[in-house]
């Protein structure tokens, strides 16, 4: 992993018939890459050289980022574990001074201000700006849109102190963008993860039919391309107060994650 500048998990390594490493990258690309490796056209192609060049450059960028974030997390994680929110806020603000565009630092910053310190004056504008920024990044930030939506509608959080109008206005913007980029009728990825927070938003906004529809799509996506055990599926279902079913599986609220 280190010699190849591969910092992300999962990473796949494809060895061709000549014993050379022909491809290094995310397994999601294998369906397109393997036929070219098998017919011998991949390793010496311009496409392969360009992909390898970008992979190395990306790995080097991530390595430089880790050099900056590692000392910040060395302060932040113990402070979060001890529930020392003031020390945690100091650590994350130190991180943002070094890396102002770091999305994880920004999300943690907002979470600390709004949910731990209940500083609405400082936290709400930062959350509103974060919503605008993740939407501007389009598809590459769908996962971040979902994370930010969770900051607003995660049922495990007490959001009663957030201003109702602003909260639902941000939820409306995020949900619209997520569904545009990963629509229910398409083959977009990770619906079982991304649609659960969406369903929670629609449920709280009063559109229970839409919430149940999205949960049904999420349930369906869990069986593709390979069947997933029911007890794992249940872990991803939102604790709605209504029943949603796909095939023989229905929503049953769970209090803890599955053991495996």
Describe the protein's architecture and organization.
This protein is mainly alpha-helical and 260 residues long. It is built from ten helices and four strands. It has helices spanning 30-38, 46-81, 85-98, 103-116, 120-136, 142-153, 164-181, 191-204, 208-221, 230-235, and strands spanning 12-15, 21-25, 245-246, 249-250. It has a two-stranded antiparallel sheet with strand order 1-2. The chain has a two-stranded antiparallel ribbon with strand order 3-4.
Can you summarize this structure?
The chain contains ten helices and four strands, in the order ββααααααααααββ. With 260 residues, it is mostly helical. The relative contact order is 0.06.
Helix-strand string: EEHHHHHHHHHHEE
Major sheet: arrangement of strands: 1-2
Pairing-aware structural class of the strands and helices?
mainly alpha
Task: State the shape.
Answer: globular
Mean pLDDT: 84
Give the fraction of residues assigned to helices. Answer: 55-70%
Largest sheet: 2 strands, antiparallel
Beta-strand portion reads 5-15%
Any low-confidence stretches, pLDDT <50, length ≥5?
252-260
Distance between the termini: 26 Å
